[in-house]
């Protein structure tokens, strides 16, 4: 029964990743509860699986021409430098307080995302100015560090941040498919040195997730921008609330 429940959660997580990029955080407690892994090992194993969901998601979105590489590359460069650092810090500290702050940011982002999309924002303008590239790099740095530190995966941070800054939802979600590869690889390298990964569980869970990613990508490309923003907002609020509740319970 535990294996079936973990498989169901993995399918849901994969679908959310493929559809809105956000949702990987749900896999961590599922691994802890249904497979008996420690919290740190659950984080490391989940992050390992996101390498492969990212590869498949990137392929599916690139086929549709949805990835803007001029936006994606600077974000990924920031993530690759800071994902390893986050995993290193994770091995030496309790991340509960950071998770509480992270949850509040994600919930706020979800609420903010409900605003009608206007195409305007600090970084939504066309062109590749130096300031814009630096800002994108900074987003990637925050995403990479947060991913390595908490195991939540890059999209849970990159999607709401990019939508808030004015990028179209589909652009943010497409970028998140690539950044999860970079953040997950960088964090996993750190986990191989500072933590532990259950490769046996990780591989079959990943296989189930990939089915969900294909389903989610199909849903994303069949939905309009308004509907995608609504989905992003709802998922951010639910996931942020989940992280907050989990962190408060850990403090109790």
Structure description:
There is one protein chain. The chain has helices at 2-20, 27-35, 39-63, 69-90, 96-113, 130-150, 155-164, 169-194, 199-222, 225-251. It is an all-alpha fold and 252 residues long. The mean pLDDT is 80.
Topology:
Elements (H helix, E strand, L loop, with lengths): L1 H19 L6 H9 L3 H25 L5 H22 L5 H18 L16 H21 L4 H10 L4 H26 L4 H24 L2 H27 L1
Helix pairs in contact: 1-2, 1-8, 1-9, 2-3, 3-8, 3-9, 4-6, 4-8, 5-7, 5-10, 6-7, 6-8, 7-8, 7-10
H/E series, N to C? Answer: HHHHHHHHHH
What sort of overall outline do the alpha carbons produce when their principal axes are compared?
Answer: globular
Low-confidence stretches: none
- Give the termini separation: 29 Å
Largest sheet: none
Helix percent reads over 70%
Quaternary state reads single chain
How many helical elements? Answer: 10
Q: In what range is the share of β-strand residues?
A: under 5%
Radius of gyration using CA atoms only: 16 Å
Structural class: mainly alpha
Number of strands: 0
Mean of pLDDT: 80
Short description:
This protein has 252 residues and is mainly α. It is built from ten helices and no strands.
List keywords for this structure.
about 250 residues; mainly alpha
